[in-house]
Amino acid sequence: MSSKSSTKRKYPREVPKTKLKEILKERELSKKSKRTELDDLPDGIHEIRDLTPEEGIERIEGIFRRVFYDTINTGTPILNIPSRSSSNVIYDEESDLLLLGQNYLERKWDDISAVKKFTAQLRVLEIIHRLLSENVHGSKREVFYMDVDLFEDQNRGSDPLIEDAAVMLGTYRKNIHVTANDRGLVVGRVQYTDNGDVIDCTRQGSSGKNINPMQDHITDLQSDAEFILVVEKQAAFLRLAEDKFYEKYPCVILTGSGQPNVATRIFLRRMSQELSLPVLAVMDSDPYGLDILRVYGLGSKALSYESYELATPNIRWLGVRPSDLDKYNLPQNTRLKMSPADLARAKLMIEEKFVKNKPDWVKELKIMINRKEKAEIQALASRGIKFFTDEYLPTKIETGDWV
């Protein structure tokens, strides 16, 4: 599959029109948050900024100098790291984002157990310094393999230290040149330049285009779409891509293949902001699907320091909502019984401040909890293999059935 188009298409093109823009105008879905600039965010928030490689290098060298001086003067060097724990995450109602507060934790060189983690944190900073100095990118997996004996485990070892390094430096992870995998996919009516190559996402076949983890290589976004459609799973994405749903309804289709990685979230936010496109989302009708929607829209607690760069607050829940199960006559044998863990997660979620701020979410969660039912997007196939693309989505989009 070629990732490069031979000629650059001009936008806008002749496309079918929907009633979506009229509905958006009436309901002000595309209205921007009152907080539109980083400087507008509330007091008490840990400050994160874009850094050039040179600025990143300077900050890392400053940390190493402080460690050296502490070692000479006190014998006990300390790393002050902004806490990424949930207790330090603040929900800002006006921006509708989860943001990182200003509590810190100390990582000390004061006992055997602490020495290893302290050393591993410095090793991660050393690796980042090398990446920035050489102006190259490395994957999180590559960082792990640069010192397997020290890190021991990627998920519990090097990965959290990479996030801690970024927040220590007061910058976004994209600026430290460490990337995750490229499981995000995009297809449809968007075109951009990737490190000099023109990518036309209407020419990516039935499997779509992988979203480049190196988002700083992506420039010149163009589109004639009316909206962006985010789907939770790759299976639903492939159905939409194969059916060329973007030709019936002028849109860009994106998936993070489950929980989205950083690159997918950045790319979605960029398309929404730079192209002024509203975002509609289709998730499984279960607490995990709603949690993924929350990550896209408000940010994640683990990466709350990056929410301003990663989150897309104007995203709306199109489906599959608990109320849809009866509304679209899904057979009982396609509905799954919620486990005790599912119910506990749903009940915990309904008490979250950011959920209480969304009455329609509360209403849908109450339906889910009361009926103790959940359903996957693929359950819609019980109504026919093309019910999802030919009936369910068109009906919802044309009637403005989102919350």
What can you tell me about this protein's structure?
With 403 residues, this protein is an alpha/beta fold. It has 2 domains: 42-179, Orthogonal Bundle (Arc Repressor Mutant, subunit A); 182-399, Dna Topoisomerase Vi A Subunit, Chain: A, domain 2. The chain contains 16 helices and 17 strands. It has helices spanning 20-27, 53-73, 112-134, 140-145, 148-151, 154-169, 234-242, 245-248, 262-274, 287-298, 307-310, 324-327, 340-350, 353-356, 359-371, 387-399; strands at residues 78-82, 89-92, 97-100, 104-108, 138-139, 178-179, 185-188, 190-194, 197-200, 209-210, 218-223, 227-231, 251-255, 279-282, 315-319, 336-337, 373-374. The strands form 6 sheets. It has a 6-stranded mixed beta sheet with strand order 10-7-13-12-14-15, with helices on both faces. Strands 9-8-11 form a 3-stranded antiparallel beta sheet, with no helix packed on it. Helix 2 packs antiparallel against helix 3, helix 3 packs across helix 6 (154-169) and helix 13 runs antiparallel to helix 15.
What's the arrangement of secondary structure elements?
Blueprint: H1 20-27, H2 53-73, E1 78-82, E2 89-92, E3 97-100, E4 104-108, H3 112-134, E5 138-139, H4 140-145, H5 148-151, H6 154-169, E6 178-179, E7 185-188, E8 190-194, E9 197-200, E10 209-210, E11 218-223, E12 227-231, H7 234-242, H8 245-248, E13 251-255, H9 262-274, E14 279-282, H10 287-298, H11 307-310, E15 315-319, H12 324-327, E16 336-337, H13 340-350, H14 353-356, H15 359-371, E17 373-374, H16 387-399
Parallel strand pairs: 5-6, 12-13, 12-14, 14-15
Antiparallel strand pairs: 1-4, 2-3, 7-10, 7-13, 8-9, 8-11, 16-17
Helix pairs in contact: 2-3, 3-6, 13-15
